[in-house]
Please model this.
Amino acid sequence: MSPRERTRPPRLRAGDVVAVVAPAGPVPAGLLDTGLAQLRSWGLEVRLGEHLRRTELGYLAGTDVERASDLRRAWCDPEVRAVFCARGGYGSMRVLDLLDWEELAGAAPKAFVGSSDITALHELVGDRLGLVTVFGPMVATKAFAEDEPAREHLRRTLFDPASVTALSGDATGSLVPGRARGTTWGGNLSLLAGTLGAPGTPLPPDGALALLEDITEDPYQLDRFLTQLLRAGWFDRVAGIALGSWVECGPPEQVRATMTDRLGGLGVPVLWELGFGHCPAALTVPLGAVAELDTEGRRLVVQRPALA
Model:
């Protein structure tokens, strides 16, 4: 069966209008201001979510209704060409049931950018709206405001996507050898495990390429998340796996051993340390895009640019 093709949103161009919203945690003011200045330096007109600088309960960027409202307003604005998430942290899952997905599906396709906790939104924006989404640095984080290589790779993905179709990191290697072709799917491991069982949560399609990363989770916790996904059948139709970074998850050799133990018996190729996630100079990766995983070549190659 051929990999499922999703709609590719239009690439960005100077002069485009974009929106910045905070569906999850509260936004550090200094990093936000620096990130907004960077977006404007790309020639973009930036609109801000009404509640972008709010804090609720100490760990949310406003109430659930406020955060959902900002996202809905940005997505349904016909002038907005891309929606950037300000940061992760926690909170994306709390807005999923407050969004009218039929209304969002009626809006014109646009790039959706975020990572980490935003994985919960990537799952449904990709599946229910049928779009390729962009898993990359967020505007009010050090990965965007202070990490020039990470920021530049995101910029190229959005403005010149054909220039970044071959993805590989400095430490990329083979955990289980082989090649596979399929639709990229996944994101943050703990978020994927955390959304299991909720109504409407999609599982990877036939022949999917799973992309997984995480931060500050000990090897036994990574084991628990992987075991939960395995028991739930999440990997049953996966054709290959690309592992990203595992920052502050313990000794790399122990993390690698855990991955080998849990994933090595699936009979699919597995790439180690592709270079996306929470690491320095993190690569931006498209989700919902058809790609080829090649462990011998130590790379993931997107078959068509992420954006049209």
The mean pLDDT is 97.
